[in-house]
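Budget justification aside, the reviewers requested a transparent look at the raw inputs and outputs of the sequence design task funded under Objective 1. We therefore reproduce one unedited record. The lines immediately below are the structure tokens for a 291-residue chain.
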């Protein structure tokens, strides 16, 4: 390695995992990206992170703004290079023109996923621009797993999904999740928890990644996850392996459901004149329905 070689510590920004890495620069050119074991998330680096030099020096990479000089429907699209000041001024002028003519709501901002792209650092700034512009519209791309994290969890529990407390848990369940391929730092934390003595259960049709080291591997048929989840829930209810007070006070698990239409039972379903907005719950203590 020549004297002009530098080893610069940092982190990989190509996905939300932010794995700690070392960028090897030789003669002012990035030649390699390596894991940085001394970093909390740098024990491993995926192939995408290692291929960063190929992305940086790809011949098709855009290094400056371009403006189309032909019509959109022209089959032979041509472009010309413009300055960053020109690009920013043109964009700002067009946004103001659209807002003046049709209102800010006519503009939609499209955002790539921060989980699998380099948008994680820029994401909040684009959102601030959208809010400042006054548009409620955003088209965000994300993975199926991320949809659960960002939407299902808050709608179910009222808060965003926290990081798993792997340092103190006695059992780790990975359901259709292979962090050793998709989220290396999380996979490393799961492996550390298991080495500490935590049990590992993996639900996955394939025995790959951490499933090969699991204490229990549940090989579900593709599409049968729901049946397994309902079966586990049935056992929890039958054997009372749940927090009754929490379920009764903080969930709709005790609300009664109508057999004919699947809607939750209300006071008006019991008799005329009763409040239609009041749900009917099953009192776990008296074993009677109550409003």
């Amino acid at each position: 390695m020549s004297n002009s070689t530098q080893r610069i510590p940092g982190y990989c920004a190509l996905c939300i995992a932010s794995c700690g890495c070392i960028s090897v620069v030789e003669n002012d050119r990035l030649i390699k990206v390596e894991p940085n074991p001394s970093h909390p998330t740098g024990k491993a680096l995926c192939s995408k992170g290692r291929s960063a030099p190929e992305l940086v020096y790809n011949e098709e990479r855009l290094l400056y703004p371009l403006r189309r000089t032909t019509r959109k429907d022209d089959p032979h699209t041509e472009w010309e290079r413009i300055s960053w000041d020109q690009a920013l001024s043109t964009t700002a002028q067009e946004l103001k023109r659209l807002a003046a003519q049709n209102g800010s709501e006519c503009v939609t901002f499209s955002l790539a996923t921060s989980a699998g792209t380099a948008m994680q650092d820029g994401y909040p700034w684009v959102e601030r621009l959208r809010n400042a512009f006054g548009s409620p519209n955003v088209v965000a791309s994300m993975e199926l797993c991320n949809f659960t994290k960002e939407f299902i969890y808050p709608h179910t529990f009222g808060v965003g999904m926290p990081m798993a407390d792997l340092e103190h848990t006695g059992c780790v369940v990975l359901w259709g999740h292979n962090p050793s391929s998709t989220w290396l730092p999380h996979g490393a934390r799961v492996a550390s928890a298991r080495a500490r003595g935590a049990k590992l259960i993996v639900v996955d049709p394939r025995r790959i990644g951490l499933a090969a080291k699991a204490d229990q591997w549940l090989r579900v048929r593709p599409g049968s996850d729901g049946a397994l989840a309902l079966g586990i829930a049935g056992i929890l209810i039958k054997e009372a392996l749940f927090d009754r007070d929490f379920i009764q006070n903080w969930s709709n698990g005790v609300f009664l459901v109508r057999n004919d239409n699947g809607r939750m039972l209300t006071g008006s379903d019991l008799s005329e004149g009763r409040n239609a907005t009041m749900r009917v719950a099953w009192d776990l203590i008296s074993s009677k329905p109550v409003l």
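The chain has ten helices and twelve strands. The radius of gyration is 27 Å. Computational costs for records of this kind are itemized in the attached budget.
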